[in-house]
Specification:
Helix content: over 70%
Shape: elongated
Number of strands: 0
Largest sheet: none
Radius of gyration: 20 Å
Order of helices and strands: HHHHHH
Structural class: mainly alpha
Strand content: under 5%
Number of helices: 6
């Protein structure tokens, strides 16, 4: 029986440069999933005549921008409230991206798969908190918020 050499390829510019690129680009790439969810929320809201589309749009919007709940967006309005809510949410997602990139590059052979795994665990925690906040607001206010 002959042994077959395994050629996994080489890492361009070495593992240190690859880890540095993960740490540098991770926070920026971490903004893309919430931006896509926000775009989907905006798309669902356009020419909306359905309750299902309205609820889906609201849910996607607050999952993409949790800062909107802190600003009281379902109960208050105004462009400044929306801007502050979206700005704080962008800062939150940048922080999640930074933490995910740091956690993913703890191992010497880090990859983008490691980054996205860490990112999804952290984002899942944020999304669980958003759903919990919506449920708590619904119970405290005593009426259907969604």
């Amino acid at each position: 029986m002959q042994s077959v050499p395994i050629d996994l390829g080489h890492v361009p510019q070495g593992p240190r440069a690859y880890r540095a690129r993960l740490r540098r680009l991770g926070p920026i790439l971490g903004l893309f999933p919430p931006a896509a969810m926000g775009g989907a929320a905006w798309f669902l809201l356009r020419d909306n005549t359905s309750t299902v589309r309205g609820v889906g749009s609201f849910l996607l919007a607050v999952l993409a921008a949790p800062g909107l709940l802190m600003m009281g967006v379902p109960l208050s309005s105004g462009s400044q409230v929306w801007l502050v809510g979206v700005g704080t949410s962008a800062a939150l997602w940048l922080l999640v991206g930074v933490v995910a990139s740091r956690r993913a590059t703890r191992a010497p052979a880090a990859s983008w798969r490691d980054f996205w795994r860490e990112y999804l665990w952290l984002a899942g925690g944020v999304w669980l908190g958003v759903v919990g906040a919506l449920m708590a607001a619904n119970l405290i206010l005593g009426r259907a918020l969604v």
